[in-house]
Amino acid sequence: MTRTPISDTPPRWAEHLLRLLLKPRDRDTIPGDLLEEYREVVLPARGRFRAQLWYLRHALSVVSGVKLGAALGLLFSAWNLLVTVLAPLVEDSPRALLSFYGPMFAMWGVAGFAAYRRSGRMAQAIKVSATVAFVTFLIFDIAVIIRLNLFLDVISHRTDWRNLVSSYRSSGFESLRAYANYEYLTGSPFKIFVATVIGAVCGLIGGTLASVSRHRERPLTSR
User: Fold this and answer.
1) Residue span of the structural domain in which 1 resides
2) What pLDDT is stored for residue 7 in this prediction?
3) What is the pTM of this model?
4) Can you tell me the distance from the alpha carbon of 104 to that of 136, in angstroms, rounded to the nearest whole number?
5) Does residue 58 share a domain with residue 6?
């Protein structure tokens, strides 16, 4: 029995994520069709890197924004909790925030890119990315509040908590836990709104890049 060379396979994580988010009846047919086109058509014509981008774009294009947002929300929530378990006193420095939110925003942009390539409409790219962002941050914000309650005794000693602890002392609340939960819960709608707006902007950027790439491909396909 011969094995398929590793270079002939699309990103495994994307393939597994696609199967997870598809309806049961589509979990064999759609990934199978994508894999066949990837190996026989796209990979020989574009090379491995561009072929993997093609696979990722098409995988995302067949998944709903809500499901993709839920998957990303769970992924980044798990990442955040893991970092807190391993290093609870690490500060939210600009570099740390960029390394965390950068991939999240990039995925929102890729969702917009895929939506535009599928529909040809910028409004659809913006809508899909905004939906993905909304669901992502809704789940992530719930996980942040859970994290707060699990690790309050430790993370309350971080320097980036100084303002919250200081305002708690004059708040009239009897416990820091109650006050922190109040602050996080009342601030959640605004955070989710901002994330949704950022998602829409990422969708606009992704849609614009998709439009440019489609325009460049058109002369090649018309020969």
Assistant:
1) 1-63
2) 59
3) 0.77
4) 9
5) yes
